[in-house]
Specification:
Elements: E1 2-11, E2 14-20, E3 25-30, H1 36-48, H2 57-60, E4 67-75, E5 81-89, E6 93-98, E7 101-102, E8 115-118, H3 123-127, H4 130-144, H5 146-172, H6 179-217, E9 224-229, H7 239-249, H8 251-257, E10 268-273, E11 276-277, H9 278-281, H10 284-303, E12 311-314, H11 323-336, E13 339-343, H12 346-351, E14 361-366
Parallel strand pairs: 3-13, 3-14, 8-12, 12-13
Antiparallel strand pairs: 1-2, 1-4, 4-5, 5-6, 6-7, 9-10, 10-11
Helix pairs in contact: 4-5, 5-6, 5-8, 6-7, 6-10
Bound molecules: adenosine-5'-triphosphate and magnesium ion.
Length: about 375
């Protein structure tokens, strides 16, 4: 996919704004607070009907207004046009329209506009706790496998249901594992089985892509590996039985804690640099380069598994890598995909040889006054 233009209304600091993009390289230049990240956020909202920055749509609405709107015109393979529109109002909630028709479920949208976003918030992937890495994994798998996304939602729904049962049983001082709990656990297990199977395969397929991208952008002579620590660590064939047994055995404890203490929602993904976990030993530079390699690999992985071309949204990329590697990445991606890179540094663009007069790119200038 390629986004041709974008229109924002009451979106964060933008009251109204229109952008026309280049099908290959777009460099968004502007001082801090001028709205660069917001442009990427808006594209992401169209693609996933969800922001990468917040789950609260009301935060996105301009402080003085009661609603926001985002419109985008995309072109896909075979020059098919997709018009997307996300409207959110503080009174009526969110509505998404695809070619003017209301979208019934978010699952319909997922994967249609494949995107990769690299933002400063992503530092938690290599540096933070397991939740950030699980999000990373779920985002990739959801974009290439709609069934995965559906099962993930199903799993979360069943888990919430189970946790509310646990809390109510605790209040009633009930600890007996009964048929009601078992029925929910069976549904939870069905969804979990799918997640586990796909995650297992993902790790095997993703590592070579990750390693290849890491070698391309770094001088570090160490091997990177992504490892999955499964909370229910068992073979495919036994998973269902083992998980159900675990849920049953732990039930009294789970009632005491008021939450479910086993299952794929507790899987951990670790990133090894050499034989050490980067989270514990990585230098600042190593974190940056590993993060970019993960994101490049994400893009390539998604690209190879579905027909549409992936849109790369790379916030402040130039702050993460040295000149040679930045240029290499931008050059490689922009040959095949549409890419957006933000920066505050006009001098850097000049130094890197990016030029307004080059027809293969567009430099979009933002200023606080205009927005
Ligand atoms: N709901 C909102 N209403 C009005 N303004 C907002 C809202 N949310 C955020 N802003 C403002 O929008 C501006 C643009 O932020 P944005 O993060 O896009 O800037 P940026 O150009 O990426 O800056 P930086 O270079 O620091 O990353 C900020 O000044 C922020 O305070
Ligand atoms: Mg920013």
């Amino acid at each position: 996919m390629v986004i041709k233009n974008l229109r924002l209304v009451n979106f964060r600091n933008y009251l109204t704004a229109n952008f026309t993009f280049h099908p290959q390289l777009n460099l968004i230049l502007g001082e801090n607070g001028s709205g660069k990240t917001k442009v990427l956020e808006a594209i992401q909202i169209l693609a996933l009907s969800k922001s990468f920055r917040t789950n609260v749509d009301a935060d996105i609405v301009n402080h003085n207004e009661s609603y926001y709107q985002v419109f985008g015109e995309f072109e896909g393979i075979g020059e098919s046009e997709v018009n997307l529109n996300v409207n959110f109002s503080k009174n009526d909630g969110k509505k998404v329209f695809i070619n003017k028709y209301p979208l019934k479920k978010r699952t319909e949208m997922v994967g249609k506009i494949p995107t990769v976003i690299l933002s400063p918030d992503n530092q938690n992937i290599t540096g933070g706790g397991p939740a950030g890495r699980r999000d990373f994994l779920n985002r990739i798998l959801s974009q290439i496998d709609r069934e995965y996304f559906k099962q993930l939602i199903e799993y979360r729904t069943r888990l919430l249901q189970r946790n509310s049962i646990l809390v109510s049983y605790k209040q009633k001082r009930k600890t007996k594992y009964d048929a009601y709990v078992e029925a929910n656990d069976e549904l939870l297990t069905k969804a979990a089985e799918y997640l586990q199977r796909i995650r297992f395969r993902f790790i095997e397929d993703f590592n070579p892509v990750f390693q290849h991208n890491f070698e391309k952008i770094s001088h570090i002579q160490k091997l990177v590996i992504l490892k999955m620590q499964f909370n229910v660590n068992t073979d495919d064939a036994d998973f269902g039985k083992t998980f159900l047994r675990k849920l049953r055995d732990r039930f009294p404890k789970d009632v005491e804690f008021g939450r479910t203490t086993c299952g794929p929602h507790l899987d951990n993904l670790i990133v090894l640099l050499g034989d050490k976990e980067i989270r514990q030993v990585g230098s600042q530079g190593e974190h940056k380069v590993v993060l970019v390699a993960l994101k490049m690999a994400e893009g390539q992985f998604i690209q190879n598994r579905q027909p549409e071309s992936v849109i790369f949204l790379l916030d402040d990329l130039f702050a993460l890598l040295d000149e040679r590697h930045c240029l290499k990445i931008v050059d490689e991606i922009s040959r095949k995909n549409q890419i957006f890179v933000t920066t505050t540094d006009a001098g850097l663009l000049k130094k890197y040889g990016f030029d307004e007069s080059n027809p293969e790119m567009k430099i979009i200038h933002l200023s606080k006054e205009e927005s």
